[in-house]
Amino acid sequence: MSRHRLPSDNSPKTPVIYRNEEEFPVGGCKILRSSPEDAVTVVAAGITVHEALKAYEVLANEGTKIRVIDLYSVKPLDEATLVRCALETNRTIVTVEDHYPEGGIGDAVAGAVSKEGIKVHKLAVNDIPRSGKPEELMDMFGISANAIVRTVKQLVGR
User: Fold this and answer.
1) pTM of the predicted model, to two decimals?
2) Residue 107's pLDDT is what?
3) Does residue 147 surpass a pLDDT of 70?
């Protein structure tokens, strides 16, 4: 087990997002939810993509739209898509990752978009990883759908 990731032996069963034929070119990302009314862009990868999609549903039911990006390729990074999406969503990105923030998705995204005046809010594991139920761990470390919802609400003033 990597000391930078949540334990994978208890990984939750997650719904399938992509068809088997889906292509994932190196240096790309997938915009999973998008509308002209999106207030914030949420960038996630792996298990946190599922949390971002759950947060999307909760927020949409409450009248707040968010853009959700699956950042499946971190190096190289799809800088153009990230900048475009952020510019369309109030120059605001929330990154969500299941490991420490140092050297992770948040740092990579911030490095790519900061020159455009885009604000990046990082949700990451800021404590010593431990064993437990995945849902409880994600909530404990502030990377769950609930944490995403709280962060977006703070950012949009709700």
Assistant:
1) 0.86
2) 95
3) yes
Cβ atoms of 113 and 86 closer than 8 Å: yes
The Cα 143–Cα 158 span in angstroms is 19
The Cα–Cα gap between 5 and 130 comes to 10
Q: How far is CA 16 from CA 6, 46, 50, 120, 146, in A?
A: 20, 12, 10, 28, 21
Bridging pattern class, strands 66-70 and 30-33? antiparallel
Q: What domains appear along the chain, each with residue ranges and CATH number?
A: 30-152 (3.40.50.920)
User: Residue for token digits 């971002």?
Assistant: 52
β-bridge partners, 95: 43, 122
